[in-house]
Amino acid sequence: MDIYDYLIVGSGLYGSICAYELNKKGYTCLVIDKRNNIAGNIYTKNIEGINVHIYGAHIFHTSNKEVWDYINQFAVFNNYINSPVARYKNELYNLPFNMNTFTKIWPECFTPNDVKNKIEEEKSKFHIAEPKNLEEQAINLVGPTIYEKLIKGYTAKQWGRPCTELPPFIIKRLPVRFTFDNNYFNDRYQGIPIGGYTQIIKKMLDGIEVKLNTNFFDNRKEFETIAKNIIYTGPIDEFFEYKYGPLEYRTVKFETEVLNESNYQGNAVINYTDYEIPYTRIIEHKHFEFDTTSSKTVISKEYSVAWKLGDEPYYPINNDKNNELYLKYKNDADKLTNVHFGGRLGQYKYYDMDKVIIEALDYLKNI
């Protein structure tokens, strides 16, 4: 018996936008989530007065004014600019690769032409016509010095294997800037919601029935009968009971701790690029909102971990094997007239937050 017009599985950004917009149009919605909190991976929790990004740092950025105006309905954004720092052993470098980075790596270089000539000199000594792995490809692009200090260890930790064992296509290009500009993103609009992301989802879901600690698959038959339509934002392969085999991901482990000091590292994001340090980066959450008054701080160490079935899926591994597998699931999904698959897990594709908004709103145009 249909009680709702829409059952929405997952209260992350995609599912919550759908619920908000459908509710405005007069449709009845039930949102369920297997976690004990709303907001999916953009969930932020207040710890010691600091808004902590529980599932990893999320920095909103877009060049689409409509998207920027849309998200600003739900929160006031600050003017945070993502300017990460890389630590290689006892050396610190600005990211992305720019003149601040290069003049520190090569103190004899002062101008963009100096740096261009230096990189070309290094590349020419080690050029390989047909690179067989990621290491050879990266050296072809930027030379051995930048590769050794800023790419080799970090990339190996991210993928769980040496760069010599990774295919060259993973790095098609490496953005190199010949300006003194530490702004990681090129987008026109950028910032962090003052007060965290959870408030955004809370406002979207205001007045809509939400059930937490509720796993769709625990009562699948019941859930499939209580709504005319389903918007599903979980893993697409799980929906089809892994009939073609599981899609692969990389996952992330977080170690979050409260420290009795006011400023641990002086920046929100510091990447650790040498392989000997097991974590990929440390996030100091208070710097996302320019907090200079709290006597304590909260940091999260991030570890890139091999994924196995049952782990939290983070980053789709979109190689040929997995893409072909996904297309099999998508073919089955396209045959279902009352189920829509959306978001990162439903579409097996990594999305920045602005692209999630675009995808959700595009889908809703037809309803």
From TrEMBL:
Give the cofactors, semicolon-separated.
Answer: FAD
A molecular function (GO) term: flavin adenine dinucleotide binding
Q: Does Isomerase appear among the keywords?
A: yes
Alphabetical list of InterPro entries matching this protein: UDP-GALP_mutase (IPR004379), UDP-GalPyranose_mutase_C (IPR015899)
Which ranges carry the UDP-galactopyranose mutase C-terminal domain?
A: 149-350
Read off the NCBIfam families from this record.
Answer: UDP-GALP_mutase (TIGR00031)
Family under the similarity heading: Belongs to the UDP-galactopyranose/dTDP-fucopyranose mutase family.
The protein's name is: UDP-galactopyranose mutase
The record lists the organism as Anaeroplasma bactoclasticum
**Lineage, broadest ranks:** Bacteria, Bacillati, Mycoplasmatota, Mollicutes, Anaeroplasmatales
